[in-house]
Amino acid sequence: MAQRWTEADIPDLTGQVAVVTGGNSGLGYETCLALAAHGATVILGSRSRDKGLAARDQILAQHPQASVTVHALDVASLDSLRTAAASIGEAHPAVHLLINNAGIMATPKGTTADGFESQLGTNHLGHFALTGLLWDALVASGGARVVHVSSLAARAGRMRWDDLMHTRGYEPITVYSQSKLANQLFAYGLQRRAEAAGAPVVSIAAHPGMAQTNLLGSSMGGSVLRPLLNPFVGLFWNTAAQGALPQLYAATAPDAQPGGYYGPDGWGERSGAPSPAVVPGRARSEADQDRLWAESEALTGVAFLTDAV
Fold first, then answer.
1. pTM of the predicted model, to two decimals?
2. 3-state secondary structure of 121
3. Going along 91-224, which residue ranges are E strands?
4. How far apart are CA 160 and CA 308, in angstroms?
5. Please, are residues 27 and 149 in contact by the beta-carbon 8 Å criterion?
6. Do the Cβ atoms of 74 and 80 come closer than 8 Å?
7. Please, what sign has the CA dihedral across residues 139, 189, 118, 33?
8. Is residue 261 helix, strand or coil?
9. Rounded Cα gap, residues 94 and 17, in angstroms
10. What is the chain's percent helix, strand, coil content, to nearest 5?
């Protein structure tokens, strides 16, 4: 990029409807705050309605004229997703931005409400389902963007096709890396299918680098590691607001490329301003993109763009 992109470069978003999952804290909150500040009608999705309302109140305290609505939206529950998508679609027949941001990281072994392994279920399958459930509204906008928030961990990711739910040999960071690779496989598979179908929807992936969010504290060992890392976090890590910039760039910048991938421009893509990021080789496999798509449809019961490629 010719110059360092900042939040000030976000264009006027008046008239655009933006749905953000995990909008009550961390990257999601900063994304909602920035979008609302630039005129978007923000749908703040939060697993906890009370936390969502508190986040909305914080945004309105800074931007009293902002339009922010809270929806109880748990990406780890297909019932919650169906209810939220129906409510959003009724209120907003056209959705211009969908930021698939919510996530968990390196958590102990567990399952979602639907019996999926927690990390794959939350980080990928829930967002696959939500995208499909909102697909008609995204198409109706005539130029929507879907942004998938991945991670540097995707570089180490491998899809365990014979055991996607890691029922054997569960390793928290390995399973997290798989879920973040899945985010990218979905992102690029969605772009291919949207193009093939002639659908006016753009799919873009982004990652925050190393950002100061609550994910570290919720991960296994995070409570032990955080005090040791604190002296270095401010020097080498992005703040949550800085970490949100790549996904904001993907969502709003006129020159963000369909099927692109954006992250920080600093050493190792750990911190800095938004810039094109290195795509993991495994994420480029069209065969794996299509296999994950088929698996995701079968698992979630949500099908869209099935025959587009």
1. 0.93
2. helix
3. 97-100, 144-149, 201-206
4. 25
5. yes
6. yes
7. negative
8. strand
9. 7
10. 50, 15, 40
pLDDT over 70 for what percent of the chain?
91
3-state secondary structure of 46: strand
Q: How far apart are CA 202 and CA 139, in angstroms?
A: 10
Looking at domain 13-298, its CATH architecture is 3-Layer(aba) Sandwich (3.40)
Residue 152 has a pLDDT of: 96
| CA-closest candidate to residue 176, choices 78, 103, 279 | 103
Distance CA 125, CA 181 (A): 12
Distances (CA, A) of 259 to 19, 90, 262, 308: 19, 29, 10, 16
Read off the tokens for 232.
């270095």
**Rounded to the nearest 5°, which phi and psi values hold at 240?**
-60, -40
pLDDT at 260: 98
Q: 201-206 and 261-264: which strand pairing?
A: parallel
Q: Are 181 and 173 in contact (CB under 8 A)?
A: no
Cα–Cα distance for residue pair 127/115, rounded to 1 Å: 16
Residue 99 has pLDDT above 70, yes or no: yes
Q: Is 170 a catalytic residue?
A: no
Q: Residue ranges per domain, the chain?
A: 13-298
Q: Which of the residues 29, 176, 249, 261 is marked catalytic? A: 176
**Dihedral sign of CA atoms 148, 154, 155, 159 in order:** negative
Query: Among the listed ranges 66-75, 171-180, 187-196, 219-228, which one has the minimum average pLDDT value?
Result: 219-228
Reported as a single tens digit per residue, the pLDDT across 211-240 is 776 655 454 454 444 443 444 444 456 799
Closest CA to 238 of 215, 272, 205, 207: 272
The least confident of 23-37, 88-102, 224-238 is 224-238
Residues in the chain: 309
The strand ranges marked E within 187-227 are 201-206
Q: How far apart (Å, rounded) are the C-alpha atoms in residues 86 and 137?
A: 10
